Amino acid sequence: MAKITENTRNEVKEIVYNFFAEECEVDKSKINDGTFIIKDLDGDSLMFLELIEIFKKKYNLEIELKVIGKYSVKHPVATIGQLIDMQMLIIEHENRLLDLDIKS
Fold first, then answer.
1. Which CATH superfamily is domain 6-96 in?
2. Per-residue CA distances from 58 to 11, 26, 61 (Å)
3. Residue 94 to residues 7, 27, 49, 52, 71: CA-CA distances in angstroms?
4. 3-state secondary structure at position 11
5. For 19-44, what is each residue's pLDDT tens digit?
6. From residue 1, how far is each of 13, 59, 90, 100, 104 by CA, in Å?
């Protein structure tokens, strides 16, 4: 579990923007938090899995894909901003991510 700071959020945002710009061959300046991953960028769910692996390595996270899958069924991600928010939760809570639904 990584400590969340404003710097962490900025790093995550930068990685996500750069990733989608490269993978979708889109100018990074055309991407913002409201950009739709599928509709606007022609992205797909495999890209999300790739990003998870990037963040697992960067932040030394221990989280099972099934935990993320279960969470994302209840909390689907459509935009870049939503993806960044979910990634922040993954970094902060790791395998305890599903516990957030219990507390809600």
1. ACP-like (1.10.1200.10)
2. 10, 24, 8
3. 19, 31, 15, 11, 11
4. helix
5. 999 999 999 999 999 999 999 999 99
6. 18, 8, 9, 15, 21
How large a percentage of the chain has pLDDT more than 70? 96
CA dihedral 22, 77, 55, 35 (to 10 degrees): 30
Contact status, residue 79 vs residue 35, Cβ threshold 8 Å: yes
Question: Tokens 């900025």 map to which residue?
Answer: 10
What is the domain partition of the chain in residue ranges? 6-96
DSSP label of 4: P
Provide the token pair at 64.
Answer: 């099972």
Work out the number of other CB atoms within 10 angstroms of the CB of residue 68. 21
| The pair of three-digit structure tokens given for residue 8, joined into one six-digit string | 């962490």
Sign of CA dihedral 89, 90, 91, 96: positive
Inter-helix orientation angle 80-93/65-74, to 10°: 130
